[in-house]
Specification:
This protein is α+β, with helices and mostly antiparallel strands and 252 residues long. 49% of the residues lie in helices and 20% in strands. The strands form two sheets. Strands 6-5-4-9-8-7 form a six-stranded antiparallel β-sheet.
Length: 252
């Protein structure tokens, strides 16, 4: 069956873990040469394989990665990323959290706290966060396509505190700034006295489907503090992306 052969090709490309040429696919699978070339082309047409940028070579496609991510349970993501988040919480000495984008909304799915028993920290809770007022949501929205950003900006937006940005001009400016510096912050926009910072977690070329952030009292999260933490979160986001992709490719 063609389906069996296409699955065999996808498994082989995934296990190789690098860009691979069609002749290599042909040799590894033992498929007839015309059949192999035709199936690889079909998989590319469906974006299950993508050109790697190297002449004639392919890698697992964005569409397949997206399908695998959509099917991945929160428990799998938490298991893959929890050690990284816990290490960061201890090093930052602040609460660190992971958020996920799906169904046009962002929700916090995992939280790690510092181990210091003398430290007072903020626990943000789990669940959906407003797209316009939380760092974890804005970090993702700022890197989304313009159409999705427009859907956020043009809806009726809740004013949680006096610091919540609700105007189209403010939000467009903020999204542009986030895209420039690589992280988002929330300065008492949901609760007075509480601030947070978050960086997008991009999975390959699929885009920012997760974000990783830190939250704490405003006295420890002033603007200079948030800038420092934001840069550290950018580094952490790359590690988190790698952990998610590793377990994702293993399942593919």
């Amino acid at each position: 069956m063609h389906l069996d052969r296409m699955v065999a090709i996808l498994e082989m490309v995934a296990l190789t873990g690098r860009p691979i040429s069609v002749p290599e696919v042909h040799k590894a699978t033992g498929l007839p040469k015309p059949t192999c070339y035709r199936l690889v082309q079909t998989l590319q047409d469906q974006r299950l394989l993508d050109p790697s940028g190297e002449d004639g070579k392919v890698v697992i496609g964005d569409r397949l990665v997206r399908i695998a991510l959509l099917g991945k349970a929160d428990s799998d993501v938490r298991k893959a990323t929890a050690p990284l988040l816990k290490t960061a919480a201890i090093r930052f000495n602040e609460t660190v959290f992971l958020s996920r984008f799906r169904n046009d909304q962002v929700e916090i799915i995992h939280v790690e706290t510092p181990d210091d028993p003398t430290r007072a920290y903020i626990y943000p809770g789990l669940g959906v966060r407003p797209m316009h007022a939380c760092s974890c949501s804005k970090a993702i929205a700022a890197f989304a396509d313009p159409e999705f950003q427009n859907s956020i900006i043009t809806r009726s937006l809740k004013q949680y505190t006096e610091f919540t940005k609700t105007s189209e001009k403010e939000l467009r400016q903020e999204f542009a700034l986030i895209a420039q510096k690589g992280f988002a912050d929330c300065d008492q926009e949901i609760d007075l006295g509480i601030a947070s910072v978050a960086a997008p977690v991009s999975i390959g070329n699929v885009g920012a489907t997760f974000s990783v952030g830190a939250v704490g009292p405003i006295r420890r999260f002033q603007k200079p503090d948030r800038a420092t933490i934001g840069k550290r979160l950018i580094v952490l986001s790359e590690k988190v992306s790698g952990a998610i992709q590793l377990c994702n490719v293993a399942e593919v």
